Amino acid sequence: MMRPANVVTSVADVLAGIAISGYFLSPVMSMAYIDPVLLLCLSTIGLYSGGIIFNDVFDFELDKLERPERALPSGIVSIREATIFGAICFAVGIIAAAFVNTTSLSMALLVMIAALTYDKWGKHLSLIGPVNMGLCRGLNLLLGVTIISTVPEGWWLIIAVIPIIYIASITMISRGEVHGGSKKMLYFAALLYILVVTFILFIAHNKGHFLLTLVFVVPFYWMIFTPLFKAMEDPVGKNIGKAVKAGVIALILLNAAWASAFGIWYIALVIALLLPLSIWLSKTFAVT
Q1: What is the mean pLDDT of the chain?
Q2: Residues 9 and 278 sit within 8 Å (Cβ to Cβ)
């Protein structure tokens, strides 16, 4: 139920946010310095897991028809057990953030609210739903930024819009996983993907790290567009599912690109190394 492969991508969000904040530029290296990083990683694991679990709880009736093999409709896990487990995950995410600072706590609460809003209502709204889902990722990126314990600056908020656009694109595509999708929607998603790549390269150019960022952007581009082009040719559920799966996992490379755009190459490398783990987990556990 927790979608482990997806949870790994949420850790990548937070690490990218921390890199954007400039926290890793500090010359001081100690356990006290690393502790907040680990706490925010634990926080996002709890928040993302809670969001995914409650998504399945709210989708119970629909999944009985469309995805009867899932844990809840198949009877492997009860609604009560899933609800308790989801609440525990959220609690872990909130408490871990509270140990960092009050700004992190506030951001964690916003992530939880955005996730529950999507789970209960947002997913059913054609326009607001994808934006709502993207907002969860944008706030998750800002959760990493809050490690510096100040209100995020304006340009950080602009950067947080990029994961909103990207995830909104994936969410729009995912609506065709079961019954097939629209080619027009796939082309629109491709346009948004290009916008995301262009903006990252623009930031990297202004920061003086264009070539370094290309190292991560090129495989990111290949990973998201290869299955998307196949889905454009034949927009059946199976092809769209592959495009969605690739788009979710490729978030790791997107986050690595963010870290590299701000010159934190070693964190970009650490984030990129999460990709094999996420791919391995995706072969055993569901991504969508």
Answers
A1: 89
A2: yes
End-to-end CA distance of the chain: 10
Instruction: Quickly list DSSP for 207-276.
Output: HT-HHHHHHHHHHHHHHHHHHHHHHHHS--HHHHHHHHHHHHHTHHHHHHHHHHHTT-HHHHHHHHTHHH
273 part of a folded domain? yes
The tens digit of pLDDT for each residue in 233-254 reads 988 888 888 999 999 999 999 9
The domain in which residue 230 lies consists of 4-280
Length of the chain: 288
Is residue 18 included in any domain, yes or no?
yes
Task: Give the CATH number for residue 85.
Answer: 1.10.357.140
Residue 124: inside a domain, yes or no?
A: yes
Residue 27's alpha-carbon distances to 15, 23, 146, 242, in angstroms, are 18, 10, 19, 43
Token output for 63:
């999944």
Structurally, the chain folds into a number of domains equal to 1
**Residue 286 forms part of a structural domain:** no
What pTM value is reported for the model?
A: 0.91
